[in-house]
């Protein structure tokens, strides 16, 4: 318990009612931890039971599969990090870059959304596939987990988010000419390692579909398909990178004639363990 008292547990949730998150929250609270909650639902259990918090104000999400709450939570946590780090002189430049990136983010998102037709064309090639692998590292490991979750939730296609550094620990055995693989390769401190994962997939006759930054011709030339994103500060690139994956899951579902807003067997809030 002494370790928990020295930490600052943060609980994040869209509905604010998820059972396992609440149980973890109450465990920490019983040991005297200061709790901060991030939720999209005013008056939810997370907002009531934490000591302080952030309402992300993303607005109601009608569909079961969360999209805007995910990206809004990232923005909220980035802003929280900037606030905490702004007292440090050595981090002033970093904080200023992030704040400028946040100001430019809406326009960059509009640019990514203009690639919807390209993503639809890719979905038409993939919607009859049985499986999809998504690989990333650093900030974009979570991007791949989110993308895989959305594909599973709304299109019922098996998909798996993989930490690209673990490729040789098992997942590489799945890669062949019939396995579509999405790889996020952006110019952050994991770039060379993600580039190596791309080379590994290519060497196994895989069909790498890359999400990279504009002007990265080396990655684009190695790709079966490639989607380029405008550049921004590294901790915000995951917001831009997840949008093509969310759109891809939407198009995969609609091409199959599925109800995107109400996927089978799922509920908006998981209140049991």
What is the approximate shape?
Answer: globular
- The helix-strand sequence is HEHEHEHHHEHEEHEHEH
Task: Pick out the low-confidence regions.
Answer: 1-6
Measured distance between first and last alpha carbons: 24 Å
How many E-type strands? 8
**What oligomeric state best describes the polypeptide chains here?**
single chain
Beta-strand residue percentage: 15-25%
Alpha-beta classification: alpha/beta
Fraction in helix: 40-55%
* Mean pLDDT metric: 88
Number of helices: 10
Strand order of the largest sheet: 5-4-6-7-8
Q: How many whole angstroms does the radius of gyration measure?
A: 19 Å
Largest sheet: 5 strands, parallel
Explain how this protein is built.
With 273 residues, the chain is α/β, with parallel strands linked by helices. Helix content is 46%, strand content 15%. The protein contains 10 helices and 8 strands. It has helices spanning 2-5, 19-29, 45-49, 68-85, 92-113, 116-126, 139-155, 191-203, 217-221, 237-255, and strands at 10-13, 36-39, 52-55, 131-136, 158-163, 180-185, 207-213, 225-229. The chain has a 5-stranded parallel β-sheet, with helices on both faces. A 3-stranded parallel β-sheet has the order 1-2-3, with helices on both faces. Helix 7 links the parallel strand 4 (131-136) and strand 5. Helix 4 (68-85) packs antiparallel against helix 5 (92-113) and helix 5 (92-113) runs parallel beside helix 10 (237-255). The protein is globular and about 55 Å long. The two termini are 24 Å apart. Residues 1-6 have low confidence and may be disordered.
């Amino acid at each position: 318990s002494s370790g928990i008292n020295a930490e600052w547990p943060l609980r994040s949730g869209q509905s604010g009612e998820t059972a396992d998150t609440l149980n973890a929250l109450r465990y920490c609270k019983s040991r005297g931890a200061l709790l901060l909650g991030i939720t999209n639902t005013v008056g939810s259990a997370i907002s009531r039971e934490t000591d302080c918090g952030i309402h992300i104000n993303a607005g109601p999400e009608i569909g079961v599969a969360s999209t805007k709450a995910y990206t809004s939570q990232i923005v909220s946590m980035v802003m929280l990090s900037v606030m905490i780090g702004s007292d440090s002189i050595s981090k002033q430049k970093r904080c200023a870059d992030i704040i400028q990136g946040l100001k430019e983010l809406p326009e960059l998102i509009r640019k990514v959304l203009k690639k919807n037709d390209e993503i639809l064309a890719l979905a038409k090639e993939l919607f009859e596939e049985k499986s999809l692998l998504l690989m990333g590292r650093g900030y974009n490991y979570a991007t791949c987990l989110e993308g895989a979750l959305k594909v599973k939730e709304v299109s019922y296609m098996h998909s798996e988010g993989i930490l690209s550094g673990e490729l040789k620990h098992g997942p590489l055995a799945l890669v062949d000419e019939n396995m579509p693989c999405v790889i996020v390769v952006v110019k952050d401190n994991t770039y060379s390692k993600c580039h190596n994962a791309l080379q590994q997939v290519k060497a196994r006759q895989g069909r790498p579909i890359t999400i990279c930054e504009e002007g990265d011709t080396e990655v684009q030339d190695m790709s079966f398909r490639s989607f380029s994103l405008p550049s921004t500060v590294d901790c915000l690139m995951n917001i831009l990178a997840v949008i093509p994956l969310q759109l891809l899951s939407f198009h995969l579902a609609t091409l199959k004639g599925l109800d995107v807003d109400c996927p089978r067997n799922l509920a908006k809030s998981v209140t049991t363990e």
